[in-house]
Amino acid sequence: MDLRKIVFIGFVVTFFAVFVYAAVENNTTMTWVVPSNVSHSLTYSGACSSSDFYFVEDQCAQDSDIDGNGSQCVPQTTSAGGTSCQDATTIPITITNNGNVGINVDANFTAEFAGADVNIVLKVWMSDGPGCGASGLGGYEAPCTITGATPVTSTACRRYNQTNETTAAQRIVSALGAGDTNGMCFSGDFNTSVSQGSHAVTFMTTSPAS
Amino acid sequence: MEEDSASNDSKEKTKTNKNWKMLFGAVVIIALAVIVYSFISDQDDSSVPLALLTQDSQENNEVNLTGNEGKIKPSSYAVRKEYFEEAFKPRRDEYNLFEKASERLGIPLEDVPEYFTLNSEEDIFNELPQVPEDFSEVAYLLATGRTYAIGNLSEEYFLQPEFYPNFKENGLKYWSEPDPKYWTTNGYGTYPAEQFDVLSYSNRDEFLAVVFLYTGYGVQTYQGATLIPSSGSLEYFDITISPDTFLLTPTFPKFSKDWAHQIVIAGKLKPDTPPGEYSIGLLIVKPPYEKKVEWASKYRNLYFDAATGIAPSNFPIRFTITVKE
Questions:
Q1: What span, in angstroms and rounded, lies between the C-alpha atoms of A100 and A88?
Q2: Cβ density class B152-176: b for 16+ within 10 Å, e for less
Q3: Which residues in chain A touch residue B29, judged by CB atoms under 8 angstroms apart?
Q4: pLDDT digits (tens, 9 = 90+) for A90-142
């Protein structure tokens, strides 16, 4: 066996050995250019929270009784009314982007309103900065004018009701920049006739398409 | 006899020459191995031009990289190594959070610890491990995309909030600018949230990823979470996640010891997956019922599911996998 063969074979063996050693050092296989940090926080006003967020008919600004219909109903801390979570200087839910990339926020209900829930209506709009507008209803519209992929504004709302398809996420906030905060305001209306009792529905972000 | 002796001498010389040649060959092989290994070890430097380009583009907006309000700039240091050591260095004795809170709330400084239900500002970080000496350099390497070997990073690194870009800008304000009208109940972060890999049937058909998943800043609650791959991802890959169910503990009024987790995700190509580009998404969903009951009974009014009605629209963790022949 001449020198050239010895060198060649030895080189091949060593070459792969070096690659194997290097691979063991790097214990993950993924790469990135500049790593993205996607982070958010959800803040609630007062005693409200994701489980303490009630729309109570006899607390509505319009038709505040218990006959099954009412509108302009801001969220409350308890099902018995409690304290309002929303007014001109109080934002019920605020989302903050704490990461280093911009984010969109979409939401929809996990199931269509049906049966006893069929006449429930949720309206969502953006805060005006300090709060949710006069009497907490600055963006309330009848009917809401925001549809499709257009994000809501402080003076125009998006409506969720029995006609919403659960597979289509609805844009709430668009391009929330790193470090930015956006407030969301709500009205839970009782349209035509809603039966007495609790109507709990789940408001969730749907699976993102991208 | 003389012919035999001469033949033997010739054979000895040939054998000696061969030995020298083999020794020379071995030296050449070792030298080449050192050169090749050095090249591979420094292979990340091949991305230096890109990382430097990224860094240069960040210098005009250094807040995003160092989270230090642009006060620490590369141009401030004649010795660049000192800049790398300072850029991500926690400066907890300089945050002066309680002083700022006192001013904002209009209350005496001595009343601020009680406002936060703490004894001192140092309490905010006192459940965290000691900050390693090379912490800033390692965090900088990751933030600039110059290292991908994050699987071996210990808790000493990823449990420090300064490890995550923009903490100093976006995280400290929960103490320095408190608003008693509001409380933060939900939130989480993922880092690095988006990762890339190339697989092939002829070479490597498996991937291994690590993501740090942490409680959002200012969150006062305990959040139960389960991570699952999206249904579309499972059509082409077998995926395992460890841990897949976990509890995110509070970051306010102080950082608790389980506020961040190292998640390991392994994936393997399914046999009939055609070449192309694939997007794998991981979702955060509610934990199993028995875990939720366990955590809810323990933490009561402070337990929430991490998966809420309102969250960023994209997958919190995303992989782009290119599959080749």
A1: 31
A2: ebeeebbbbbbbbbbbbbbbbbbbb
A3: 7, 10-11, 14
A4: 999 999 999 999 999 877 776 667 776 677 888 999 999 899 999 999 999 98
Distances (CA, A) of B131 to A181, B118, B128, B161, B261: 30, 21, 8, 11, 17
Percent of chain A predicted with pLDDT > 70: 70
CB B189 within 8 A of CB A99: yes
pLDDT in tens, A159-176: 888 776 454 567 888 899
Domain boundaries, chain A: 40-204
Please give the structure tokens belonging to residue B237.
């890959």
Q: Within an 8 Å CB–CB cutoff, is residue A167 touching chain B?
A: no
Q: Is B316 on the interface with A (CB under 8 A)?
A: yes
Q: Using CB atoms, which residue from B166, B182, B311 is nearest to A205?
A: B311
Check: CB of residue B140 under 8 Å from CB of residue B157: no
Q: Domain B187-325 is of which CATH architecture?
A: Sandwich (2.60)
* Residue of higher predicted confidence among B56 and B167: B167
Entry pTM: 0.78
- Structural domain spans, chain B: 48-182, 187-325
* Residues of chain B neighbouring A93 (CB-CB closer than 8 A): 310
Torsion of CA A182, A104, B193, B250, to 10 degrees: 30
Asked if B37 and A22 come within 8 Å (Cβ–Cβ), the reply is yes
Count of CA atoms in the C-beta half-sphere (13 A) of A168: 8
Q: Sort residue A115 into left (φ over 0), alpha (ψ -120 to 50) or beta.
A: left
Please report how many Cα atoms fall inside a 13 Å half-sphere around the Cα of residue B150, on the Cβ side. 31
Contacts of B143 in chain A (CB under 8 A): 34-35
CA distance A114 to B89: 55
Cross-chain residue pair A208–B314, CB shorter than 8 Å:
yes
- B40/A19 Cβ within 8 A: yes
**What's the pLDDT band for A55 if we cut at 50, 70, 90?**
confident
* A21 at B interface, C-beta within 8 A: yes
For residue B213, pLDDT over 70 is answered with yes
| Neighboring chain A residues of B149 at a CB cutoff of 8 Å | 25-28
Which chain A positions have a beta carbon within 8 Å of B185's beta carbon? 42-44, 49-50
Structure tokens at B173: 């304000």
Which of B221, B226, B213 has its CA nearest to residue B256?
B221
CB of A88 less than 8 A from some CB of B: no
Contact A43 B184 (CB under 8 A): yes
ipTM of the complex: 0.76
